[in-house]
Amino acid sequence: MLVAFSHRQVALLALIATVLGAAVGVLLFGPARGARDDIGSVRSDLHGSRQAIGATLGTARTDAVQAGTALARTTLTVAQQTLRTGKQALTTATATLQTLTTSLDVQRQQLAVAQQTLEQTREINRKIPGTVAPLPGS
Fold first, then answer.
1. In the chain, how long is the greatest CA-to-CA distance?
2. Domain-embedded: residue 137
3. Cα 131 to chain center, whole Å?
4. CA atoms of 69 and 52, how far apart (whole Å)
5. What is the tally of structural domains in the chain?
6. How far apart (Å, rounded) are the C-alpha atoms in residues 123 and 138?
7. Average pLDDT in the 94-118 region?
8. Is 3 inside a domain boundary?
9. Are 135 and 122 in contact (CB under 8 A)?
């Protein structure tokens, strides 16, 4: 079934098609075309910036890890030196304790001899009355 359009409807349809065609042409070939190129440039710039930032962060992380490793090694060296010094101090303290223990044993022996000598002297003084004044504590 054919529909007959009036001359006015055909003209209006042609005008709409022309305006629509012009709008599509402006969108595709007009000033927005430069904006699309700029958007592409910005995208590539951003991509390059992301790569540069990533490389910088990678370097910073590597530097931080190396610094941490160096600090850990230094700390380990100091701890090992401290351990050696502590072991030497323990050895010296052990030897000193042994010397003091021996000295204490000798002093106890000397005290026992002195007490025996004192007791013998008191006994002698008791056997010879009037010759020697009594010792204190007898």
1. 171
2. no
3. 85
4. 26
5. 1
6. 10
7. 95
8. no
9. yes
pTM of the model: 0.46
User: Domain range for residue 28?
Assistant: 10-126
Which pLDDT score is estimated for 55? 80
User: How many CA atoms does the CB half-sphere of 19 hold within 13 Å?
Assistant: 6
Residue with tokens 């005008």: 15
Taking the C-alpha atoms of residue 134 and residue 127, their distance in angstroms, rounded to an integer, is 11
**Residues 111, 127 contacting (CB under 8 angstroms):** no
Q: What is the tally of helices (H) and strands (E) in the chain?
A: 2, 0
Q: Is residue 89 part of a domain?
A: yes
DSSP 3: -
Mean of pLDDT over the chain? 84
Tell me the pLDDT tens digit for each residue of 41-84: 777 778 788 888 888 888 888 888 899 999 999 999 999 999 99
Judge whether 5 lies within some domain: no
Q: To 5 degrees, how large is the angle CA 104–CA 107–CA 110? A: 155
Residue 121: C-alpha distances to residues 72, 114, 130, 137 (Å):
72, 10, 14, 12
pLDDT reported for residue 44: 79
Query: Residue 10 CA to chain centroid, in angstroms?
Result: 82
Amino acid at 23: A
